[in-house]
Amino acid sequence: MKIAVVRERVDGEPRVAATPETIAKLIGFGASVSVEKGAGEASRILDRQYKDAGAGVEATAAAAVKDADVILAVRRPEASTLAGAARGAVVLAIADPYGNERALAALAKAGLSIFAMELMPRITRAQVMDVLSSQANLAGYQAVIDAAMAYDRALPMMMTAAGTVRAAKAFVMGAGVAGLQAIATAKRLGAAVSATDVRAAAGEQVESLGAKFIMTDALKDASGTGGYARELTKDEQAAQAELVSGHIAKQDIVITTALIPGRPAPKLVTKAMVESMAPGSVIVDLAAERGGNVELTLPGKVIVHNNVTIIGTLNLQGKIAATASQLYAKNLLAFLETMIDKDAKALKPDWEDELVKATLLTRDGAVVHPNFAGASPAASVAKKSTAAKAAPKALAKTGAASKTAKPAAAKASAAKPAAAKVPAKKASAKKPAAKPAAATAKRPAARKPAAKKDGGQ
Ligand code: NAD
After folding, report:
1. Are 450 and 302 in contact (CB under 8 A)?
2. What is residue 375's predicted lDDT score, i.e. its pLDDT?
């Protein structure tokens, strides 16, 4: 059983799919591992460290993947990069299948079995394989670090001989995985933190982290299926906007993370709201990848509007690539381990396993995932123009698929009375319902984002 790790080819992707630690484990399962030269460099893992863990380091991708049974990657590799792999080789990656039918068809044609790690069901058994959670958690952390770097004032309250510095006010919109970590990080840095979400169950989790939960009585609990949010009605949107607009005007830092499965990111912060903020305020829009929660966000850019910095940087977790790779590699290892017969020291996926069925995109020369089956290069060209419309539909199906597998955290919260509405009182439960990783706030290597006036970087 040969496992290959390829260098990432997408610009600005510094993560890597295996670490010396995960490689040592794979070798322990009877595999031989080949790593493409320089694959871990941007995550601070040197070729020498891979060698010390027992891997071979190859000068090219072609040499690394030659006859490989498994290929590990962060982004979906091109079929051409994987030429020479064993027929039927398994590829684990964040495959980004929506609107990419042509690439899927090419991988299928090459005889590869590609798994989309981001389609992993959010059930208890698969928590350790959940790349969305492991990476969103880090993005939430990094959002606060970026905000702190761009904010020209201190975050904590300081009582000094020269006077008192007030604590910065931070507001987190959307208290899912990323939002909860953003709340925890902003608290650790000393900010006065408030947060909102449209799922009432999130209130208890927000308060357990010591932040104030903001919600309006006019907004009914908008929990959808699988612990996700549903889209708000027009009236609910108006009620939320009214609540939020007064609050945002008083904030120094706003971090938005709100997403709804299968829909573009809801627009929560209007231009007028941005203009109501004090000079020097900072907004980090973690939903930038899905269009943004802020009307003015330019995905991938940092802009300044009316003296307010709006950070739309993508792949924020990539800014702490060493940590992101460490967790991502563990996610892959955990999933791959379920496919390895340790006695036979061979790859033996159980094609009927629910995790395999939920994530497998291509097999035996065809696209097999129900959301994409039938994809072919020709079909892809025809579909390309409608990709934007098709994607939400397909995503919605994925959200629905998790209906029966309600996330544990959501279940626990649902069993309790709905969280108090605003202004919310302290939740009675002292124990945090959600357990954000106990990250120690540290200064990142990342530099202060270069801000440009309304133009981006
Ligand atoms: P997400 O990325 O889909 O959305 C982020 C947050 O935005 C959510 O909390 C959502 O309710 C909120 N939101 C949506 N519209 C909003 C609006 N208009 N205003 C304010 N907030 C809005 O969510 P996620 O981080 O993937 O988490 C979704 C759920 O899944 C949560 O309940 C989480 O606890 C649960 N979860 C479970 C597991 C597991 O059990 N394996 C793992 C991860 C997450």
Report:
1. yes
2. 55
207: enclosing H helix or E strand: helix 201-208
Query: What distance in angstroms lies between residue 413's CA and the mean position of ligand 1's atoms?
Result: 13
- Closest atom of ligand 1 relative to the 199 alpha carbon: 11
CA distance 375 to 208: 46
Task: Report the amino acid identity of residue 299.
Answer: P
Strand ranges for 42-187 from DSSP E: 56-58, 70-75, 90-94, 113-116, 158-160, 163-165, 169-173
Atom of ligand 1 nearest to the CA of 258: 7
Q: Which of 141, 191, 146 is nearest to 168 (CA)?
A: 191
If you measure from the C-alpha of residue 61 to the centroid of ligand 1, how many angstroms do you get, rounded to a whole number?
37
Ligand 1 nearest-atom number relative to CA 175: 9
β-bridge pairing 308-311 and 282-285: parallel
Distances (CA, A) of 371 to 149, 185, 374: 41, 37, 9
Ligand 1 centre distance from Cα of residue 256 (Å): 12
Instruction: Tell me if residue 317 is catalytic.
Output: no
Q: Are 50 and 80 in contact (CB under 8 A)?
A: no
Cα(314)–Cα(312) distance, integer angstroms: 6
Q: Is 353 labeled as catalytic in the residue annotation?
A: no
Annotated catalytic, 127?
yes
Q: Does residue 213 sit in helix, strand or coil? A: strand
pTM score: 0.83
Query: From atom 1 of ligand 1, which residue's Cα is the shortest distance away?
Result: 259
Residue 34 and residue 26 in contact, taking contact as beta carbons nearer than 8 Å: no
Output the pLDDT for position 341: 95
Tell me the C-alpha distance between 322 and 452, whole Å.
28
pLDDT in the model for residue 255: 98
Choice among 34, 50, 130, 380 that is catalytic:
130
In the chain, the amino acid numbered 62 is A
What is d(CA 34, CA 411) in angstroms, rounded to the nearest whole number? 42
pLDDT profile of the chain (457 residues), mean per 10: 97 96 97 98 98 98 98 97 96 94 95 97 96 98 98 97 98 97 98 96 96 84 83 89 93 96 91 98 96 97 98 97 98 98 95 97 96 61 38 34 34 34 35 39 37 37
